[in-house]
Amino acid sequence: MPRRPSPSRRRAPRQERSQATCDAILTATARVLVKDGYEAASTNRIAQEAGVSVGSLYQYFPSKEGLVTALLEQHRARAVADFEAGLVPLAGQPLAVAMRALIRQVIAVKRENPRLNQVLHELMPRMRERGLLDVYSQRLFRVVRAFLAPRFQDLRPQNLDMAVFILVTTVEALCHTAVTERPDYLEDESFVEEIATLALGYLRPEPAAVPVRRTARERTVRM
Fold it and tell me: Based on the domain organization, do 43 and 86 belong to the same domain?
């Protein structure tokens, strides 16, 4: 099935000044969404916030939906690029050490602008309905898969693709829910520890302990 073109832009900026204008418009879009919400946002309001004319805005973005799509793409591209860069020094680390570092990195992204993260997350289903393909989620899955592949023989799951899907989705969901419901957890190192324990227990659980058999006398004493 051919990929539908992104509805985010009418034309790409070719000069430094044009790029600066696009960046200012997207920054203004983020501010308006955080302050007013999606329904109250409008291209007029965003153009005013960016300090440009509506005509200038429409040169680069065809609609409000196009603006939000472009903002989503920019936001997720940066997050995935930072995540991918963070994996490089962890390649040779033990899985437990690497897992904790990666979870801290996910939390750091969420903490950077919690309200914007929440708004964009809520808008994802609406954007998908309009043809946005979340290529960055697929890229994230590929990055995590490449990280786990050399360790696969030591992991419990037999299907690596499924394991990556479960792991990434679980960590992302927990961190996002903490942003919206328990932001205090994002400052708590024990939250990292609990998620890491959950993830490591799924990937490589400890062998079940062999029950110790007690004599009748020992059982009587304990009773």
Answer: no
pTM of this prediction?
Answer: 0.73
- CATH assignment at residue 134: 1.10.357
- In whole angstroms, give the CA distance from residue 87 to residue 74: 20
For 98, the token pair is: 């690497």
User: 143-160 pLDDT, tens per residue?
Assistant: 999 999 999 999 999 999
3 state SS of 7: coil
End-to-end CA distance of the chain: 68
Sign of the CA dihedral running 84, 86, 88, 91: negative
Q: Is residue 159 part of a domain?
A: yes
Q: For 132-144, how does the pLDDT look when each residue is reduced to its tens digit (9 = 90+)?
A: 556 778 888 999 9
3-state SS of 194-220?
HHHHHHHHHHCCCCCCCCCCCCHHHHH
- 182 phi/psi in degrees, rounded to 5: -140, 65
Asked if residue 90 and residue 179 are part of one domain, the reply reads yes
Three-state secondary-structure class, residue 14: coil
